[in-house]
Amino acid sequence: MVPISGxxxxxxxxxxxxLAPAVxxxxxxxxxxxxPYFRAGAQTAAKLWYKGQSSPVTEADIALDTFLKGHxxxxxxxxxxxxxxxxxxxxxxxxxxxWIVDPIDGxxxxxxxxxxxxxxxxxxxxxxxxxxxxxxxxxxxxYEARLGEGAWCNGDRLQLPGSGHVPPRVAGxxxxxxxxxxxxxxxxxxxxxxxxxxxxxxxxxxSIDVGLVSANxxxxxxxxxxxxxxxxxxxxxxxxxxxxxxxxxxxxHGEMIAVASQLHPRAIGAMRA
Length: 273
Hints:
Blueprint: H1 16-34, E1 48-51, E2 55-58, H2 59-75, E3 80-83, E4 97-105, H3 107-112, E5 118-125, E6 128-136, E7 141-146, E8 150-153, E9 156-157, E10 169-171, H4 174-184, E11 188-189, H5 196-204, E12 210-213, E13 217-218, H6 219-231, E14 234-238, E15 252-253, E16 256-260, H7 264-272
Parallel strand pairs: 3-4, 10-11, 10-12
Antiparallel strand pairs: 1-2, 4-5, 5-6, 6-7, 7-8, 8-9, 12-16, 13-15, 14-16
């Protein structure tokens, strides 16, 4: 763990490379907390309930959220906090640095025994992700990125090639995939990845060419994976071409597309047509 004692003024540069190992360790430890509740191909061993009408929560989500809030806040006491499983505190809006966390991205998959779920941790400064870590325990894959320094998966550098697969491999909600295919031509349809963060990370590692995202994704779904994709040579944008900004009063986004930078103009043009 990297000791960071006391708070530091927001104008001070953070030693992101020094902080990164501690965040990586936190993601691994959170995954270790979740795995005893996960049953591959079967219903979770965790207690399960619902927020609202249809959003599942398990005791594992809460346990990981509690652990990560305490651990990450200890690393950087001045940072605000935004998480799917914590009541929102508007005080985060006054902070330069904010941790944006989804303790289990893909809770529905986790609860049903599907392996596509992940621990997502982002450190955001002034609306922009500067450090992102995404850990998929059931796949034993850890993605990470630091702003301006690159992205990795299990220690291997991620770098998207200049040209993608033909036809492009596309994953996302069926209505959006249908729209893309009507306007861009034949695509290879991949199964929808239930964890949105993992869907974006798989664009970054080149196993998906185009990842499509429905409206109403939250900051915690995308903030870490956005940086991983960008540092690997890809782009995540809304369909008007704008890049996501984080830690706003309402941390919700519109329809989005994730794709290698070289393919972005053609793909976003097809979605807008």
